[in-house]
Structures are given as structure tokens and as C-alpha cells.
Amino acid sequence: MKVLPLIIILLYLSPFHAKADTGNRTLSGSVTDANGEALPGVNLIWLGTTTGTTTDLSGAFELKRTDRDQQLVVSCIGFTTDTLAIAPEQEYIDIILQEGMELQEVNVVARKITLQKLRNSVMNTDMISKDELFRAACCNLGESFVTNPSVDVNYSDAATGAKQIRLLGLSGTYVQLLTENIPNFRGASAAYGLGYVPGPWMQSIQVSKGTSSVKNGYEALTGQINIEFKKPQSPEADWVSANLFASTTSRYEANADASVKLSDKWSTMLLAHYENETKTHDANDDGFADIPQVKQYNLFNRWAYMGDNYIFQAGIKALDEKRTSGQVAHGGHTLSNPYLIHMNTDRYEAFVKQAYVFDKEHNTNLALITAATIHEMDASYGHKRYNVDQQNAYASLIFETDFTEQHTLSTGLSFNYDRYDQDYRLSNDAAEALTRQVDKEAVTGGYAQYTYKPTDKLTLMMGLRGDYSNVYGFFVTPRANVRYAPSDLITLRASAGKGYRTNHVLAENNFLLASSRTVRIADDLKQEEAWNYGASIATYIPIAGKTLNLNAEYYYTDFVHQVVVDMDSNPHEVAFTNLDGRSFSHVFQVEATYPFFDGFSLMAAWRMTKVKNEINGILYEKSLTGKYKGLITASYKTPLNKWQFDVTWQQNGGGRMPTPYQLADGALSWSERYGSFAQLSMQVTRNFRHWSVYVGGENLTNFKQENPIVGADNPWGDTFDATMVWGPMHGAKGYIGIRFNWPRNE
């Protein structure tokens, strides 16, 4: 019944029912500096009016106009204000701003927006730029959200180093991860994929909360995170750039990329990454490594052809990673039968994206996206084994057109194929034979997404897709988003929609094998299904010549079907069962950003989370999930951009532990709850013309979870459990790094 109202609204707002207002005209375009670099936050206003806008992070803008609007005033701090004559019939313009004059030997430099909430997007989307990523060590994707109030990254266990994103209070498997709008890091890579994306490779990250576009599939239950890599065809691409990093934990990294402009249309880029955690650390002396030793090689080669009407992009990636953890010897002693964890991963990816533009004026184009992935992992946890060969093939055919400035249609077909070839042993009995299991799923689908924008103030986006799975049959995914900006000072958004996902229990949760718990998997696990509803309000308040940005949002996720990871019914067992009852999450978040003075910006955020699911008739608070989070980030750049200082404070709320059991002396095996804790990180950067040096520290409060591994003294016994992780396992850490770039435009 929830689908029907959305379908009716979709049909009513379709191009056949909507009336175009041909009197509404707009001027769109882009703003760059003299070097071709996009300028965000540029002000554009029609001379003699109050009608204006600002450029987004990519320097693009769209501005409503009338026949009387002929003079456009363009201004940005640090650049010369310009007034441009716009012809009545002109619909697009590329603007180049010149840097301001030098006054009394003082240069005025514009400070770019590094973490931006996209004002014109119909979805609630945060854009994390490359400069925002530079504010922390950001060695990989998992370390890229230190300064982001919406996304948490937590360790999943205390032995393997598996990390998982949390968005809207739920685990990362409910977030659709995309690399340049291609679904990625699913299944076997879910637990460790955050470490497969080197930070220096990324150009930007877009975080969309709640119901997202149906264009990329049906799997986004709580939102999407899209990663944009560096591109050789980009105007800001460097000839060469490099990054060297070292930490006090003896972790070393090297990154390098080089781009070549082969012609005015062809370009290519090679990106390389190496990392090595060279030493074993056991800071709490429990006999287990706090940080696994990881050695990784990662290569990415991509090509681009940017024709007048035809666009082609292709790339191939290869990764080799070896991960070692487990018991460690102390004082020169050797262990006769150590409990060790070994994980060897080989991963290969390839993609091809092609598009043909039929009509640039109406943005009419046809695009074909194809991608393939092979992920091979051999893992051992003591005598337990989990080996998987995952193969994925993906294809998407997309047609898009703007009927008018008010009516836009996107429609397409998609195909996704997954194969999991698995061999496993779920006990520490080395004599037990491995079990082989092959899971295959092929999903064919189609979608239509209609966007109606009668004015600059209102945008409606309605999407509907239908998919057929050879395992679960046919299912429908409706989604709707609305944006309303009654004035330049306020923007309202609302969303509602559905999401589905197939749960591959062992592939996604193999880190749980680092425990003596018995693994029980129910027969005939259902496809997961949930509704998500959200609303947000963003305000922009002028104060003392600057803008105070305030944002408040609320999201509710309600599961129809869910695969529950039950660690409460039996403390010596982890059971994967179908939901029998309720499961939901409520998340409320407020945040404020204000630039108190030139070069300085402060952001503060507070989030409350309530997540519960029902097990055996009992509605449990979700275990190992913090009830709240506070975040304060401060950044200051000196006037000449020579120095940058960044500080981040996190206050992480307490939560519930999985149900403990009684020991022989009557004491509990672990506490029923854990408390709140704070973390502080800082970084100082010295910028030079083509290179920079950065020095920083993480977890400077030196907070460590005591005894994160239960039964560490006897990992072969029945009380061993490395999955009770809720806080950092390693104390304060320092690091130093060097960045170098050789710009193409010099």
C-alpha cells in the first residue's frame, strides 16, 4: 500500500500532465580562475536586482532571468569583480575571473569551501573536496570522514582490522558505495574495502543521506557514498603528484600519480599506491596485536576521450594485500601453538563508460556503463577457514533528456550478476573438511526518473524501478525527493522511498570468525527490505558580513525484512536469522558552520541515534552502537596560505554491549554497557609552491578500550571473542607526510 501513493504522484507529475512555463528562462555556466580551476562560492547577481546565486563546488551555476536582466555582476573574495553584458538569447556562459591586485604588498587570497552542502541538489548531499581530505591524514577511504559529522567509521573486531561505515545509525552494508557512480565494494570486500581506496587518489566524495536516485540501483537503504577519483581530462589534473607518509606505529605509505595529455581529446593517467604496517603492536599486553600488519600494492590506469559528442572513459585496477594478526610473543619468548590470522586478497576491477550527446541544448544523451570485478580472498582465523572467489558483472544503459527547463527525464536498463564460490570451515577442528558453497544471483531491471522544476524554488524528483532476481523474483523500488527554497535564506528537503539488498552472510561478516562463538545460519534467509523517510532544513543567516550555515535533519528507517545478526540469544553463538518483529532507526542531527574571521572556520555538530531490533519477542537496543556523537572542527589558514592549522574534537556516546554471561564466580563476562569517550586530532600543514609538509596526531586524548578481546589468554578456548569492539584499541599516534604536485598549467 505504501507504493501506490508514490506511483500516483509519479504519474500525475509526468511530462504528459505537467505544463511547461516557457516564460521561465535561466542562464547557466561555470566560473574558473585564470588557470582553469573551478571556483566555488562565487556570487552572481543581476545588476539592479536582488536575484542572484552562488557557484557550487564544481564552479557551476544556474540563475533565473527575465528580458530585463542584461548585466551580470560576478564577485569573489580575492578576485576582481566583473560586470558582464549578457545577450537576451544567451543561455550559457563560461566566466574567467582574474585575481585581485596587490595592495601594499599584501595579497588577498580567496578561501575555498572544502565541505559543502549542495544548495541546489534535490537530495541532502554533502560534498567533501580534496582540500577537505587534506585536513587529516586521510590515507584511505576509511580515514576520510574524520571531519564529517554524518559518517562514522568503526572497527568491526579487535583482531583483523576490519572497518565499517555507519550512516543513519546502521552498518555500512546498508549504504550503497559507488566509485564514479558504479556500484562497488559489495560482498566480500565490504569488511575491508575502505582500505582499498587510497586517499591521494580521490578528487571528492559525495555523501547523500536517505532515499537517493533509482538510477544506480535498489541497494541504497540509508544513502549513497560516491567516490570521484582524479581524472586525466580534468583541467586541474597535475602532470605528476606524490605523497609520502609515515606514522609512529611504523606504518609507511607512498602514493604517486601521473597524467599525460596525448592530444586535445585523448588523455591517460596512472595511479600507484604502496603501504606497509611493518611492526606488531600490543599496547595493552593482552598477547594480541592491536593493529594488524598490512602490506598492500594498488595500481590504477585510466583513459579518457572527450569528443564533441562522444565521450569515452575506461580503467583497470589491480590490488594485492596481505594482512596478518593474532597472538604475538613478548620478551623474546616463542609461542608453541599461536592463534594467528592470515588474509591474502587479490582484487581486479575494470570499467568502460561511453556516452553520446545527441542534443547539447536539451542535454539529450545515451550512456552505456559496463564494469567487472574479481575478488579472491583466502583467510584463516586459527584453524577456521574462509576462502571466497567473488565475481561481479554490471551493465547500465541510460537515456536522459531535458524536455524543457522544467521537465527532465532519465530512464534506463541495468543488469547485475554476482557469483560467490566459497570454501569454509567454521570450527577450530583442523581435521574437519571444508564445506563448499556456490551462490549466484542475476538481477535485471529498469527505471524511470522524472524531475519537475517549475521554478528555482521548487524541485520534485520521482523515481520508480522494477527488478527481477532469479533468487527473489520481481520487486519494485519507489523513491521521491522534494526541495523547496522559499527564499535565499532557507532550503527545505524531504524524501521517502524503499531499498533492498541481498545478504551474503559469510562474505560480509567473515571477521566474526575471530571468535569462539558457534556460527548458525538460518535456512531461506529473505531479501532485506526497508523504507526510509527523511526531512531537513538548511538556513543561511547573514551575520556581521559573513554567513552562518545551520542545518537540522531527521531520518527514520523501518525494516520490512532484515537479516538479524543475533549475538544476544546465546552469548556463545552468533546467529543469522530473519527478522521476526520490528527493526528501526531514528537519527536526528544539527550542525552549524561559521567563518568567524578571514581564514578561520568553525563547525559544530550533534547527533542523536536510536536503533532497535526485535529478537525472540524482545526489542533490543542495537549493541555496539553509540547513542550520540558530538563533533567540533576548526580550521585556520594564514593570509598567504603558507600555514594551515586543523583541529577536530569528537565526543562519542556510550551504548549497549551484547548480552553477557555469568562466570564461575558469579561475575559477568563483560559489562552490559560502555561509556562515552572523547578523541582529539590535530594537523599542521606548511605549504610551499609545489609541495607541502604536514605533521599531525590522532587520538591525542590517548583513550583506549580496555581488554577489547575477551579470553585473549586462551584463544583456543570457548570464551575467546574479538568482536566486542566499541572504541579505539591503540592510543595516541603521530604522523608526518610530504605532498608534491607539478601542475599541468605551468
Q: What does the model show?
A:
By secondary structure, the chain is an all-beta fold. The chain has two domains: 24-96, Immunoglobulin-like (Sandwich), CATH 2.60.40.1120; 115-261 and 297-335 and 344-430 and 447-743, Maltoporin, Chain A (Beta Barrel). It has a 22-stranded antiparallel barrel. The protein has a six-stranded mixed sheet with strand order 8-9-15-16-13-14. It has a four-stranded antiparallel sheet with strand order 3-2-5-6, with no helix packed on it. The model is unreliable at 1-23 and 100-111 (pLDDT under 50).
Q: Count the DSSP helices.
A: 3
What is the strand tally?
44
General shape: globular
Structural class: mainly beta
Proper CATH architecture of the largest domain: Beta Barrel
Helix content: under 10%
Strand content: over 45%
